[in-house]
Design a protein that fits this description.
The protein has 223 residues and is of the alpha/beta class. Helix content is 17%, strand content 31%. The protein starts with 12 loop residues before the first strand and ends with a strand.
């Protein structure tokens, strides 16, 4: 893959973390330039089908849309590897579900290796039915100076990058209340916002010294 011009990174917010430069993108992704690695967490593919089988009215096409978002990010940054920090899927597919086919079709065209650090929703029954081109890690993956994990927390091997919590903050002003997903950088680990469109959020309580970056429609803003 050819080198990507710096202007391609326009709109991404650079930060320094564990001695490395990371780029925070408003589409809820982190790019690690030195490794040409794109990181996202909590995609929850197939969730709309799971809810639909339970009789809940949900919009269709969410899985396909989220896969298209991943494709655009890989292309924008020229990433050589896409790493999902857990919960790539939401639940085992039903017999009539077509989202497994959507993943296979996406893999036919995505221009990067795809790796997944297994999350609590990535159940063995689902993983066995997914496309074998996906590379799975059952345990946190050390990539010095980082440890790529699903459930966030300290790890003696490096600074943790994880997900799982779907972190968010609620902003208030005189007229309105706004809840936004956030990137949350703590002393020894960071938590990425949930990437999936059909996901909720959990309000966080940052400690003194934490760095929090809110995600808007087209920008990342330090709080």
């Amino acid at each position: 893959m050819s080198a990507v011009a710096p202007e391609t990174f326009a709109g991404a917010v650079p930060i320094d973390c564990a001695g490395e430069r990371l780029l925070l993108h408003h589409d809820r992704a982190v790019y690690w330039p030195r490794r040409r690695m794109l990181l996202v967490a909590d995609v929850h593919l197939g969730k709309e089908s799971t809810f639909g089988r339970a009789g809940l009215a949900v919009p269709g096409g969410v899985t396909e849309s989220d896969l298209q978002r991943l494709d655009r990010l890989v292309a924008q940054f020229g990433a050589e590897e896409l790493v999902v920090l857990g919960d790539f899927t939401h639940a085992p597919p039903g017999e009539a579900d077509r989202w497994l086919d959507a993943i296979a079709a996406w893999l036919d065209g995505v221009d990067a290796a795809v790796s997944i650090v297994a999350g609590n929703h990535d159940r063995p029954a689902t993983r066995q039915r997914l496309d074998p081109r996906l590379r799975w890690f059952a345990e946190p993956r050390p990539e010095p100076p980082f440890v790529l994990q699903h459930e966030p927390g300290p790890d003696r091997r490096g600074y943790g990058l994880g997900g799982h919590l779907h972190p968010a903050v609620r902003l208030r002003d005189a007229a309105d209340r706004l809840r936004l997903p956030v990137f949350w950088f703590r002393g020894d680990h960071a938590v990425l916002p949930a990437f999936g469109t059909f996901t909720g959020g959990q309000n966080i309580r940052p400690a003194p010294g934490d760095r929090v970056f809110a995600v808007g429609p087209d920008a990342v803003v330090a709080l």
